[in-house]
Design brief:
By secondary structure, the chain is mainly alpha-helical. The protein folds into 2 domains: 1-58, Homeodomain-like (Arc Repressor Mutant, subunit A, Orthogonal Bundle), CATH 1.10.10.60; 68-209, Tetracycline Repressor, domain 2 (Orthogonal Bundle), CATH 1.10.357.10. Helix content is 62%, strand content 0%. InterPro entries: Homeodomain-like_sf, HTH-type_TetR-like_transc_reg, HTH_TetR, MT1864/Rv1816-like_C, Tet_transcr_reg_TetR-rel_C_sf. This is TetR/AcrR family transcriptional regulator. Keywords: DNA-binding, Transcription, Transcription regulation.
C-alpha cells in the first residue's frame, strides 16, 4: 500500500495507528529492503509525525518483531484460504503451494519473518497455539487428516517439521534461474511447484484407495 493510499484511508485518525504503521513497514520492506526500515521511514510512509511510531514500538527491533508476527499471521491466512475449498486428498499439496507462493510474493517480509524467528526472544513461546508461526498447527492438522489420524504424536510432529523444511527449502530454491527451463516445460510456476511437492511424500496428494 502506498503512502497516498495510507493517507487517503487515514487509519491514524480512526485510532488504528499501529495497523497503519505495520502496513507502512511492509511497504518500505518490499520497496527498499530491510536495511531501509526505520521508525522514521515508517512514519513518513504512513503520513504521521516522526514521534507517532513510538506510541507502539520502542525501537526498530520491536517494530521488526511486530512485522514478523503480522507476516506469519498472513501466511497462516494464505494457507487456510488455499485449502478451504480443496478436497481432502488435495489439501496437503495445496497448503505447500500456498506457502511457497506467499514467500515468492513477499520476499522482504518473508526474510524478516525468519530473521526474527531465529531470535529466541523475538516470538512468544506459545507461537504455535496463536498461529503466529504461520499456521504450524494448520499444517499439522492437515497432515493428521490426510493420515486418517493414524500417526503417533511423535510421527505427526516430525512429519510436520519435515513438511515445513520442504516448503521452506523449495521457496529458497525457486529463486534460482536454472529451473526456468523446467518450469516452462512443465507449464509454468504453479505446475512446477505442484510437481516438486508431489514428489515429497509428506506433501504429496493423498492417494485414493
Amino acid at each position: 500500500m502506498t503512502t497516498v493510499a495510507l493517507a487517503e484511508s487515514k487509519p491514524y485518525h480512526h485510532g488504528d495507528l499501529r495497523r497503519a504503521l505495520l502496513l507502512a513497514a511492509e511497504a518500505v520492506l518490499e520497496r527498499e529492503g530491510p536495511s531501509a526500515l526505520s521508525l522514521r521511514a515508517v512514519a513518513r510512509e504512513a503520513g504521521v509525525s516522526p514521534a507517532a511510531p513510538y506510541h507502539h514500538f520502542k525501537d526498530k527491533n520491536e517494530l521488526l518483531n511486530a512485522v514478523a508476527m503480522e507476516g506469519f499471521s498472513q501466511l497462516h491466512d494464505a494457507m487456510a484460504m488455499a485449502i478451504k475449498d480443496e478436497p481432502a486428498e488435495e489439501r496437503r499439496l495445496a497448503i505447500g503451494v500456498a506457502y511457497v507462493e506467499f514467500a515468492q510474493a513477499n520476499p522482504a517480509l518473508y526474510r524478516v519473518m525468519y530473521d526474527c524467528a531465529r531470535n529466541g526472544e523475538a516470538l512468544p513461546e506459545d507461537t504455535h497455539e496463536n498461529d503466529a508461526m504461520g499456521g504450524y498447527k494448520l499444517v499439522k492438522d492437515t497432515i493428521n487428516e490426510a493420515s486418517g489420524g493414524q500417526l503417533s504424536e511423535l510421527d505427526l510432529e516430525l512429519t510436520c517439521i519435515a513438511s515445513w523444511c520442504a516448503v521452506h527449502g523449495l521457496a529458497e530454491m525457486c529463486k534460482f534461474h536454472k529451473f526456468n527451463p523446467l518450469k516452462e516445460m512443465m507449464g509454468g510456476e504453479r505446475a512446477f511447484l505442484e510437481g516438486v511437492l508431489d514428489h515429497f511424500g509428506v506433501l504429496s496428494r493423498t492417494k485414493k484407495a
